[in-house]
Input
Amino acid sequence: VQLVESGGGLVQAGGSLRLSCAASGRTFSSNAMGWFRQAPGKERELVATIDWSGGRTYYANSAKGRFTISRDNTKNTVYLQMNSLKPEDTAVYHCAARERGPRYSSSTYVRTDEYDSWGQGTQVTVSS
Output
């Protein structure tokens, strides 16, 4: 699966951004997807995950109540709507695809090593 993120940019604190991740590949619609982020000097961390159907989502504590992950399997795209952005949300945001089985699983995958493909990332900068 090849992944291409878009939608990042510079926004003031309290603002919103919507990230998109376009995927190519046959396994997209049957597997989980995730959004991770990495700030300078820090490890890559989970933001949110979504199962194959979109029916089960999981959020890191830092994202709960502010971010929403969703997917459109007809467009092979996963989204991350980010509201009430804070300066500490500044990072490169990467989407990730799980390609290994089992397919059509509603399990939650939160570790980076549980994902098989990664996008190059899109920069999100939140100014105070």
